[in-house]
Amino acid sequence: MKKFSNCLTIMLLMALVLISSCGGSGGTGSKSVDIPGYATLAESYFANRETKTSHAWYGKADSNLGSKKFGSYHSGMLTGILVEMEGESFVMLQDGGNLSLTKYLFEQDYDYSVQLLWHEHTEDNPINSTLAANDLRGRGFVPLENNYCDSYYFFRDEQFEEAKRWLEALEKQPNQNSQYDAKAEGGVKTYKAKIGKVVEYFGVDDLKSDCFLSLYLDCGAVVELRPKGLFLTAKETESRIIDCVTDTANKVIVYELN
User: Fold this and answer.
1) What's residue 6's pLDDT?
2) Is 38 exposed, middle or buried (0-12, 13-18, 19+ CB in 10 A)?
3) What's the rounded mean pLDDT across residues 14-30?
4) d(CA 81, CA 79)
5) How confident is the model at residue 9 (pLDDT cuts 50, 70, 90)?
6) What value does the CA radius of gyration of the chain take, rounded to a whole number of Å?
7) Cα–Cα distance between 131 and 134 in angstroms, integer?
8) Selection from 256, 246, 255, 250 nearest residue 187 by Cα
9) How many beta carbons lie within 10 A of that of residue 161, not counting itself?
């Protein structure tokens, strides 16, 4: 009985070490993990937003089935291209045309993949009602009648594969003591560690332009950073020390870079 008790004690201690090996605690009952699924392509970035009519994917488009224009929308013309991915077709939407979708999806010289969320077509599509409300100059618009995608992030394949290989070969370092209290900052964990590799993501989320850095830390965690002020590149960020607080999705709430 004593031997069993000792074994149980050792197992509990090992479990505690594994749980606390990287992220500092910031609350009880946290379901956050050190490495989000998208950081190793174990799942899509948008997996937690999947519903019966919304589908999260990642990969490359199989074909370009044509471009479309829909009408006036917020800061510019709402346009899109009809693409096919894994046998499903949908329109990838764009407001204002800040990105060349064709360039990042199809041209051979640009080796990018995409994380995306597409929605099944419905008669009461909120995109169409927004187009109608913003059609103030008397211009007609073409209703959106296809499945559509309004959230997507591009990332460079070479950059991602390099970061993934680095993580797989990593000899984890201890997570350093942070200056922050995670709970006081509204988060669940603290990380203070050296940034080993960085993957840049850019695109739109709910048709709003967005970009972030996925930071691969030497303590074995991956955090999502939206830099304050000017956007930082991977080259400007790698090898620096970040001290930060993250939420349950490993998104950085507050941070300091040194």
Assistant:
1) 42
2) buried
3) 44
4) 7
5) very low
6) 22
7) 5
8) 246
9) 12
Strand, coil or helix: 29:
coil
Which alpha helices (H) appear in 113-207, and where do they start and end? 126-133, 157-168
Residue 164's pLDDT band (boundaries 50, 70, 90)?
very high
The phi and psi torsions of 158 (rounded to 5 degrees) equal -60, -40
**Contacts for 206 with CB less than 8 Å, ≥ 6 apart:** 150, 151
The owner of tokens 């080993």 is 196
DSSP string, 182-251: TTTTT-SEEEEEEEEEEEEEEEEETTEEEEEEEEEETTS-EEEE--SSSPPPHHHHTT-EEEEEE-TT-B
Q: Is the pTM of this model over 0.70?
A: yes
- Tell me the two tokens of residue 157: 């394949």
Identify the pLDDT of residue 2.
33
Taking the C-alpha atoms of residue 154 and residue 89, their distance in angstroms, rounded to an integer, is: 18
Query: Tokens for 255?
Result: 């941070």
The DSSP secondary-structure symbol of 172 reads -
Give the separation between CA 233 and CA 236, rounded to whole angstroms: 5
* Residues sharing a CB contact under 8 Å with residue 4, sequence separation 6 or more, in sequence order: none
Question: For residues 15 and 229, what is the distance between their CA atoms, to the nearest angstrom?
Answer: 40
**pLDDT value at 27 more than 70:** no
